[in-house]
Automatic annotation (TrEMBL):
One of its GO terms (cellular component) is extracellular region. One of its GO terms (molecular function) is chitin binding. It comes from Mytilus coruscus. This is Chitin-binding type-2 domain-containing protein. Transmembrane segments: none annotated. Pfam families: CBM_14. SUPFAM superfamilies: Invertebrate chitin-binding proteins (SSF57625).
Length: 490
């Protein structure tokens, strides 16, 4: 700074020469009456400013709240040696000063690495001997490890060798001088660890033979998409990833983790069977195609096909207990549910067995049939009948006496008049007693009888025997509960 009293003035006191383009290491020369480099100026008895902040041009203007204080922008070199020196309070940072005769010639940054305050030059490496000396001089200092973005040096912790590591997956922030979430930290040229095993805290201690290797405890997500991913192919273990970080590991509560669909599954598509069994030689898992079928990786030579097993009819395979259970205890899911006996492989004819009777002719379906004893749909008035429950054929039964009445739902040797057409359709040559008259009977081969459809009459006084199925002497026939006619006119 210079004052008008140091400059020539005219008779009115006006300044003859004025220069506003001076800088903080430039002083006013009384010889030239202009700002000159400080080394060229003799200030004599004038106070000589040396620090940048002693120059008004470097001070913040009044009311400018966005202005960074001068001392932070332009540190002083007063009392400090000439040459390259560290900024006070910023040891081992990229910033440093160039000083000359107490003047701050330049505030600059290392192009690469940090400024070594001991050797007073930029360096990429910090050796431990320097750290010890730094921390002795600065017992509360913290600064980053240039070789690892998750580590830093804390001079208040000599017990750790001053080296401290952030908890995975945090990183060290040079802005906040502490560990922060990895998403909030810019590592710059510091190597950025991502996998758990790139953090020393997760490694086995030397000599610990009981320690399971880190990759087995903490799988890596580096290179994997966000979300759940398989740890080992086709097992129940998975890892949850985010931005190459291992956020957590998990295990399917049931079933196995599908590495393609990236979710836990409780039933398997046959196309994935070989891969599954290669990784699970004793594995058992439901088939996605049939709720009564499952795969057993220990049964390669199953008669149903490689590894394919089937529950006994009408059981289903439970994805919870991993075994066959009664169908009423198995919760329905997306698997197709077989219900009829012939929907089970165990009742199907083998392809090369030419003597096998087709299943549909032997076993009968209850699909769409009410619960309880029921006539076979396409074979009514037969001795055979079925017991149904929730579309399943629980039992195939045979009447000990008579035939199964599809209306009364019981075995009977009597055919009601309203059922005779159905009965005779199934038994076109049958002869059967009339339900109400002991002298009448049905003859299915005579639909146009004079007495009514299929009805014929014994010659008087004979009666129809339900035992011999023909007309007999009345003394040899038991009519009850049928009506027994006695008079000729009846």
């Amino acid at each position: 700074m210079y004052h008008p009293c140091l400059v020539p003035r005219d008779s009115h006191g006006s300044i003859v020469n004025k220069d506003h383009n001076h800088r903080h290491h430039v002083s006013n020369s009384t010889d030239t009456m202009s700002c000159q480099r400080f080394s060229l100026v003799n200030c004599q008895q004038r106070p000589q400013p040396q620090a940048p902040c002693e120059y008004m041009e470097n001070q913040c203007r009044s009311g400018d709240t966005n202005c960074k204080p001068c001392s932070q922008r332009l540190p002083s070199c007063v009392g400090r040696p000439d040459g390259n020196i560290p900024v006070i309070g910023q040891y081992w940072s990229s910033d440093y000063l160039i000083c000359l005769r107490n003047r701050t010639i330049s505030v600059t940054k290392c192009q690469t690495g940090l400024f070594d305050p001991v050797n007073r030059r930029c360096t990429l490496l910090i050796d431990f001997s320097n750290i010890v000396s730094i921390c002795k001089a600065n017992p509360t200092l913290k600064f980053e490890n240039q070789q690892n973005c998750a580590q830093y040096y804390d001079c208040s912790k000599p017990s750790t060798g001053y080296l401290v590591e952030c908890k995975y997956p945090d990183l060290y922030s040079t802005v906040y001088q502490g560990c922060r979430n990895y998403r909030d930290v810019t590592c710059g040229k510091r190597p950025e660890p991502q996998a758990p095993c790139e953090y020393s805290q997760n490694l086995c201690r030397q000599g610990d033979t009981t320690c399971k290797p880190c990759p087995e405890r903490h799988p890596s997500c580096v290179g994997l998409p966000d979300g759940r991913n398989a740890i080992l192919q086709w097992t129940d273990h998975y890892v949850v990833c985010l931005k190459n970080r291992t956020m957590s590991t998990g295990r399917c509560t049931s079933g196995v983790f599908n590495p393609v669909e990236r979710l836990c599954i409780v039933y398997l598509h046959p196309g994935d069977l070989l891969k599954y069994c290669q990784n699970n030689p004793d594995g058992i898992i439901a088939s996605s195609l049939n709720a009564a079928q499952y795969f057993d990786c220990s049964k390669y030579s199953s008669p149903n096909g490689h590894y394919l097993m089937e529950c006994p009819y009408p059981q289903l395979f439970s994805t919870v207990s991993h075994r066959c259970e009664e169908f009423v205890t198995v919760t329905p899911d997306k698997r197709p549910i077989p219900q009829a006996p012939c929907e089970y492989l165990q009742y199907q004819c083998k392809s090369k067995d030419l003597t096998c009777t087709p299943c549909e002719k032997v076993h009968h379906s209850c699909i769409g049939v009410p619960n309880g004893d029921q006539a076979i749909t396409y074979r009514k008035w037969q001795a055979q009948y079925v017991r149904c429950f929730q579309n399943r054929t629980l039992e195939e039964k045979v009447c000990q006496h008579g035939l199964f009445d599809p209306v009364k739902k019981t075995c009977s040797d009597t055919v009601n008049t309203d059922q005779i057409d159905v009965y005779c359709l199934q038994h076109p040559h049958a002869v059967v007693k009339h339900p109400g008259d002991c002298a009448l009977y049905y003859n299915c081969s005579n639909p146009t009888s004079q007495y009514g459809r299929y009805i014929e009459e014994c010659h008087y006084p004979e009666l129809f025997s339900s035992l011999t199925l023909r007309c007999e002497h009345f003394g040899n026939v038991v009519c009850k509960p049928r009506h027994e006619p006695q008079a000729p006119c009846k």
